[in-house]
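Write out this protein's structure.
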Amino acid sequence: MANIVMFGILAVVILGSAIYCVLTRSIMRAATFLLFVLFGVAGIYFLLDYTFLGAAQISVYAGGITMIYIFAIQLVSKHTLQGITERLKGSKIMAGCIAAAVGCAMVLFILLKQHFLTQAIPNSEVPMSLVGDTLMGSEKYQYVLPFEFISLFLLACIIGGIVISRKDK
């Protein structure tokens, strides 16, 4: 029962922070709410007893990626950020709501058609050794190579941000 209550609390925190992240006009507040979303996802990993994934979520995403966002925001001058506001038109809001509804309907249709919900409930326990082997393996359907590509891409983004922010006099 306690797991269900904690999941409910984490779900409310994640959904509320994600909505505020999208709807806020301040870019620093959006980055802060994104940090809360990532911490909430890490909390769900810890709730499922996936301590490795929870620790990786906190260190890589909540720690690393959010700090990169904040550094990129701070590198941009205040004069550039002052004029950035976007007014949402009713047509854009309606198109977004329709796209979200279509996406949710597609996911629900796929889940029901492929019987993912009924198959996942009896076998909900995945051994941690399988998760570790999948994340750090280099064979087919394993993820160490995509992680390396992502790290190189992030390094290129950091270098690009430094080059762009450098002021030539």
